[in-house]
Amino acid sequence: MKNVKLIEVKSELGAGTRGASLGIDALKIACLDAGSDYFSRFNSIEVPNDNYVLFEKNLFPHAKYIDSILLTLKTISSTVAQTFEFRMFPLVLAGDHSNAAGTIAGIKAAHPDKRLGVIWIDAHSDIHSPYTTPSGNMHGMSLAIALNEDNKECKIHDLDPETKFFWRSVKKVGVDGPKLAYDDLVYIMVRSFEEPEDYIMKKHNIKNYQFEEFNEKGPEMVAKEALHRLKDCDLIYVSFDVDSLDSKFSKGTGTPVEIGLTVEQAKELCSCLLKDERVCCFEMVEINPTLDTENTMAENAFEILEAATKSIVAREAKISTLA
Predict the structure, then answer these.
(1) Is the pTM of this model over 0.90?
(2) DSSP state of 153
(3) pLDDT tens digits, residue range 81-96?
(4) Gene3D superfamilies attached here (predicted)?
(5) What is the domain range of residue 118?
């Protein structure tokens, strides 16, 4: 299918638990076990990673491996931007969620004058900075990078000059400055966050569809509302972290959280969102088969991936017919 390009990113530098680099291979095993030809239907490219530095001493306690993550984000950004140049839909399969900062940067690099909306389906808000992080793990900073957010009002760390330099640098990948506005961010199922993140979410009144509201309205209605909230956006990026699923479905991820989506809800939600022609990119992250001896997480994720891709392919075919 020439309209969809699979971008494989095995970097796990931003995670606190090792193993997310194996998530894409786990998806491929799930694909084979399901008797599907999914990974032979689409062109794919693998982005080089620097996971070998995990064997070296981390020099940045409040932004672990940020020097290598900077290089990874630049490579992801250029790969995504190039995919748009070829008029293809970038479908990103990544290790940890810090990689999403590179995806967003690539979208903006390709479309600097377009207004970008982001739908973040995740258990975590990922809006920490090196000034506020409790762990130093950069998969909790991807949206802060995209929003150019330091949140110094909630600062708990003083940063050394090198960390400041690299933090400024990661925020400049793709285009300098914010890649999106706070009004153009919608959370779905975020339910695990620290006080500094809560401060930002409340300060900017960022919409978060939590469990009770989601269950009351259902996936289709939530998708419609989320898309309507981004009605003034030219482009929309949908990021799906598998820990948005309830922990009984998502044991094979580094940070499972209770009271989340079912697999069927996730399939319907992603399918509905991706029917919107403004959705220009979809990303799936944080599958960790080392935490899941039965590969159940990858099997569940593959079901969601197939459902999401069907919407993309059907939509792209319709666009081609009308063109």
Answers:
(1) yes
(2) G
(3) 999 999 999 999 999 9
(4) Ureohydrolase domain (3.40.800.10)
(5) 4-322
Q: Which residues of the chain have pLDDT under 70?
A: 1-2, 250, 252, 254, 256, 320, 322-323
How far, CA to CA in Å, does 190 sit from each of 124, 146, 197? 5, 18, 11
CATH code for the domain in which residue 264 is found: 3.40.800.10
Segments of the chain assigned E as strands: 4-9, 43-47, 89-94, 116-121, 185-188, 207-209, 235-241, 279-285
Q: Tell me the torsion sign for CA atoms 218, 282, 144, 184.
A: negative
Domain count, the chain: 1
On whether the CB atoms of residues 281 and 80 are closer than 8 A, the answer is: yes
| pLDDT tens-digit readout, 91-145 | 999 999 999 999 999 999 999 999 999 999 999 999 999 999 999 999 999 999 9
